[in-house]
């Protein structure tokens, strides 16, 4: 799959004009050590890993230097996430950290998005919730505002149908953790216009990301390949074929991957993995996408991985 080429048009706003919004900061999980790109330097720093919404806002404010409004049902989660920049002050200048924070504004109501040019939705992987949010965004945003969804598996066309401007809706699937991972999958829906696609590519480039394109199919490219891999690893554990440690070591060392499939599932969130594999199974209908019984059991038990303190491993 080749990288998408960016075509700048006269309709693409410059970065000084563009105003960004993000819906959904998400639940905080525990601190970890990651390589994070800050102020154009690669540095190691301890910081809280958060769901993608807050990561998207931070990258837009820090790398693209764009003003960002962020809305979440739990403002405290946003406050905790912004502490990331305070934690990083020993790696970047105080002025730079404060400048990044100054570009991010928390808002309490979706009506505050009425002056934005580009909104990115990053709530949990629930089609009804996403459609409801897009319906509300359609009512309050400008007619030319682009509405992007960070869905990792749900049809862009279906989400766009909740609006009266489906040509302005597009998929923008960020990889987690957003400040570290370079890739964004771009997924046009059935009605997505070329102008929407080009503007989205321009924004992604300003954020320092590499873009690839997928057709609007369940799971797109990344999760169409990744989730069956994780699901099969869970089945191998479930059937007693190997231990969790040996499964991870085999795939990590045998395929030169940064982490094994069970560790990766814990990092992503077992509830997220289950939601995605269920979409693949329901939409495609192939039994190879049937969710592992053990995966469902762990989610039912509240063992969701790193964010809950326990998944296939304890944290």
TrEMBL record:
Residues 53-216 form the 3-hydroxyacyl-CoA dehydrogenase NAD binding domain. The keyword Translocase does not apply. Residues 219-315 form the 3-hydroxyacyl-CoA dehydrogenase C-terminal domain. Pathway: Lipid metabolism; fatty acid beta-oxidation. One of its GO terms (biological process) is fatty acid metabolic process. Keywords: Oxidoreductase. The record marks 173 as: Important for catalytic activity. GO terms for molecular function: NAD+ binding; oxidoreductase activity, acting on the CH-OH group of donors, NAD or NADP as acceptor. It comes from the Eukaryota. Belongs to the 3-hydroxyacyl-CoA dehydrogenase family. This is 11009_t:CDS:1.
